[in-house]
Amino acid sequence: MKLVILLALFGVSLAQHNPHTKHGRTAIVHLFEWRWADIAAECERFLAPNGFGGVQISPPNEHIIINNPWRPWWQRYQPIGYNLCSRSGNENELRNMITRCNNVGVNIYVDAVINHMCGAGGGQGTHSSCGSWFNAHTEDFPTVPFSNSDFNDHKCRTGSGEIENYGDSNQVRDCRLVGLLDLALEKEYVRGKVAGFMNKLIDMGVAGFRVDAVKHMWPGDLSNIYGRLHNLNTKWFSGGSKPFIFQEVIDLGGEGISSKEYFHLGRVTEFKYGAKLGTVFRKWNGEKLSYTKSWGEGWGFMPNGNALVFIDNHDNQRGHGAGGAAIVTFFDPKLHKMAVSYMLAHPYGVARVMSSFRWNRHIVNGKDQNDWMGPPSKSDGSTKSVPINADQTCGDGWVCEHRWRQIKNMAIFRNVVNGQPHSNWWDNQSNQVAFGRGNRGFIVFNNDDWDLDVTLNTGMPGGTYCDVISGQKEGSRCTGKQINVGGNGHAHFKISNRDEDPYVAIHADSKL
Ligand code: AAO
After folding, report:
1. CA-closest candidate to residue 403, choices 454, 351, 350, 353
2. Domain Alpha-amylase C-terminal: where (predicted)?
3. Phi and psi dihedrals of 178, rounded to 5?
4. Residue 377's closest CA among 55, 39, 12, 67?
5. How far is the centre of ligand 1, averaged over its atoms, from the C-alpha of 54 (Å)?
6. Closest C-alpha to ligand 1, atom 8
7. How far is the CA of 124 from the centre of ligand 1 (A)?
8. Cα–Cα distance, 468 to 478 (Å, whole number)
9. For residues 98 and 56, what is the distance between their CA atoms, to the nearest angstrom?
């Protein structure tokens, strides 16, 4: 009996670690600041046909509108209430998007901002995305409603009311993060409102949540709130499916709070992953690609089953959050493609690809003066839609990394090799490495300043394969390089360090 209960509890907690992606699909893409109408179209025309498993969307709830600076992206991390109208669209558009994406097998994960409401300096009025009145000064949000007794002010023990020291777990949880009004999640009433908001989205068909600012919430409070969540909508998910939960905790070590306090509740963002892999591909601090033979837990990362991994996110691509200058973004396209491809080829973690908008980066003394700039917008501040060019790239300032051929093809690679072990490692003790995934895929990187010219055991069945980096398989031919694997699984690779993309990848479905 005890064993049954134990297994049941274990099963329940593990369930929230499962992204519930469909048909062997694996990777998630963050369509940062996209409009719901554009995401719906993208699911149908691009994400489903190319095997993406799901989309992380920007916060869908009512948020503050800020004019100075002009409509920054981060206004969406300042909730005014749980009405579902935001810069990305209204409730009908949201519902339509969730339905259309689910209908083509692409999951939606909501960025849930539940730690706080807007900043204390947010003023009063109706400058909110659904036009609801609020008063930040008196902590009055009638549209929920929340009032001043629903906030943590009495609990916080710092003079300023702000988090002053990340070494002190109490203040990190009970005080204000950058002035944001900190919700009292220990209160039954507040828990109910937050769970109600999340349940409405679950019932609409979302598959789970990226939970914002989790370090700033007590694990016990989150456990209570997650415990109230409905199972996923059985129109699209099998009965008894728990929502996927991935929690934003920045843990590079050396603070009072660590990621593992949240492992039992869902997956956790592994910020060491992008910070370290960026350092490796940049060859900073004496790092070499050959050292990544033990990539994953061998590098001190969290257990595989707990990790949500990414090369950059919406914060650290512009100097917010953690990771600093090591992070490789679309501003360094060659390194970015290689790092994202390494992540997608490697079995560790649930992988998330960043899809960005461009802004005018202007770094003064290490800080980007334009780190606030919002998505491509019209003069009235409304977000522009995403136009698709003839070559499948995006226009109007949308970067669409997920559409870059190399990244798109590696998302497919990840699906094809899903479940296969990391195998057939090779390195030159410098920055040339190769590894396979069982007999289903093989990838070779040359990040040295000289050519790679070597014969390797790929572990793959003999035949002719199309490299999915320089091109891909189209009909019965390769649009890029061709790799001949012999009957013994060996193949010869030649990669110039001057190639536009100095790496090669083949998989079972790229065989002629
Ligand atoms: C805006 C304005 C503020 C204003 C505020 C209220 O910028 O000036 O006071 O409104 O009016 C986003 C933006 C914020 C924005 C906010 C609200 O990034 O600029 O504030 O919306 O509009 C911490 C949190 C983490 C958070 C991260 C940005 O722990 O949860 O800061 N990320 C999420 C979202 C993010 C959002 C929020 C939370 C709020 O992804 O987009 O903010 O909803 C250490 C700690 C980290 C801490 C960082 C930064 O990191 O460990 O926990 O993240 O500091 O404060 C090394 C260390 C590393 C350290 C890092 C940075 O790398 O190893 O540990 O340095 O110091």
Report:
1. 353
2. 423-511
3. 35, 50
4. 67
5. 25
6. 178
7. 24
8. 9
9. 12
- Written as one letter, the residue type at 495 is I
Return the residue whose CA atom lies nearest to atom 39 of ligand 1.
77
Q: How many CB atoms lie within 10 A of CB 196?
A: 12
Query: 123 — phi, psi (to 5°)?
Result: 75, -165
Distance CA 18, CA 324 (A): 30
Contact between 350 and 309 (Cβ < 8 Å): yes
Q: 393 CB contacts (<8 Å, ≥6 apart)?
A: 400, 403, 404
The string of DSSP letters for 394-438 reads B-TTB--GGGSHHHHHHHHHHHHTTTPPEEEEEE-SSSEEEEEET
pLDDT at 105 over 90: yes
Instruction: Say whether pLDDT at 463 is over 70.
Output: yes
Confidence of residue 14 (pLDDT cuts 50, 70, 90): low
Give the span between the Cα atoms of 491 and 264, in whole angstroms: 44
The amino acid occupying position 9 is L
Outline where DSSP puts E strands in 164-226.
Answer: 180-182, 208-211
The sign of the torsion formed by the CA atoms of 327, 331, 332, 334 equals positive
Judge whether 150 counts as a catalytic residue: no
Residue 473 backbone dihedrals phi, psi, to 5 degrees: -85, 130
Structure tokens belonging to residue 2: 């005890």
**Residue 471 DSSP code:** -
* Distance (Å) from CA 162 to ligand 1 centroid: 13
Q: What length does the chain have?
A: 512
d(CA 133, CA 144): 11
For the chain, the average pLDDT equals 96
The C-alpha R_g of the chain, in whole angstroms, comes to 23
Tell me how far apart the alpha carbons of residues 383 and 385 are, in angstroms, rounded to a whole number. Answer: 7
The 10s digit of each residue's pLDDT in 326-383 is 999 999 999 999 999 999 999 999 999 999 999 999 999 999 999 999 999 999 999 9
Do residues 190 and 115 lie in contact, with contact meaning Cβ atoms separated by under 8 Å? Answer: no
* Of the candidates 441, 254, 267, the residue with the CA atom closest to the CA atom of residue 346: 441
Whether the CB-CB separation of 113 and 79 falls below 8 Å is answered with yes
Annotation marks residue 270 as catalytic: no
Contact 433, 445 (CB under 8 A): yes
Ligand 1, atom 35, lies closest to the CA of: 315
| Beta carbons of 146 and 80 less than 8 angstroms apart | no
CB of residue 111 inside a 6 A radius of ligand 1? no
What per-residue confidence (pLDDT) applies to 9?
46
Tabulate helix, strand, coil % of the chain (nearest 5): 30, 25, 45
Give the Cα separation of 65 and 377 in Å (integer). Answer: 14
Instruction: Give the whole-angstrom CA distance, residue 180 versus residue 409.
Output: 40
Report the distance separating Cα 173 and Cα 162, nearest Å: 10
